[in-house]
């Protein structure tokens, strides 16, 4: 579903991704972890064409992200992206937040868009909050709305960039539970997170990235039990 091949990226003269290769098969959950500034967000942004890269190639569902002929806005509508800070539209109700792109980008009728939105609100446990505005919801609830909004576009894959990092601790699990449900339903996911419990329980593979380099890429159980790389051990020692 996602194939990253020898990707290098520079900001000016500083290289932030070094010859990175990752393959994510359909239905796989790949967790990406690593120290702050190691290039995790950059890697995720390259996948949906939010950041250009200078070397290598990335294919999503067979589409070349780096090809100038690729219709990036169209590709992005098929890749769900969830950020740390929710980024809901503050002036729209929860329901309208989930309906907007369905109507404007996919051309769905208001009836269809609303039915889809309500079905997704039910799935993330927020059916009673449809008429509220984002500011009336907790951080955990807002993040679940952001996930529902991304799912409304029927994405081929979902990318998460530290979806629980901005949340109060008691709200982390409600968001991880929704993501776990998605994983069980077969969604292809790349998840940047430091939630190693989630990684161990849910991920098929865990990737550790340090200074722009993919240091490890292993099945998740093996990552936690058999990895003796000093950089990985130093990182895990700090966060576990
Ligand atoms: P992470 O998500 O792992 O914390 P990032 O991908 O955000 O790391 O950043 C990787 C490196 O790229 C960091 O050194 C960061 O300072 C640098 N960087 C990120 N965005 C930009 C930018 N727009 N311009 C210049 N440097 C950037
Ligand atoms: Mg980041």
TrEMBL record:
Keyword Glycoprotein: no
A GO term from the CC aspect: plasma membrane
Matches recorded under SMART domains: AAA
Lineage: Bacteria, Pseudomonadati, Pseudomonadota, Alphaproteobacteria, Hyphomicrobiales
E.C. designation(s): 3.6.3.-
Family: Belongs to the ABC transporter superfamily.
Chief location bin: membrane
PROSITE patterns tied to this protein: ABC_TRANSPORTER_1, ABC_TRANSPORTER_2
InterPro entries (UniProt xref): AAA+_ATPase, ABC_ATPase_HisP-typ, ABC_transporter-like_ATP-bd, ABC_transporter-like_CS, MetN_ABC_transporter-like, P-loop_NTPase
Keyword Transmembrane: no
Domain ABC transporter: start-end pairs: 2-236
UniProt keywords, alphabetically: Amino-acid transport, ATP-binding, Cell membrane, Hydrolase, Membrane, Nucleotide-binding, Transport
Annotated protein name in UniProt: Amino acid ABC transporter ATP-binding protein
MF terms (GO), sorted A to Z: ABC-type amino acid transporter activity; ATP binding; ATP hydrolysis activity
Location of this chain's protein in the cell: Cell membrane
Enzyme class name: hydrolase
Membrane topology: Peripheral membrane protein
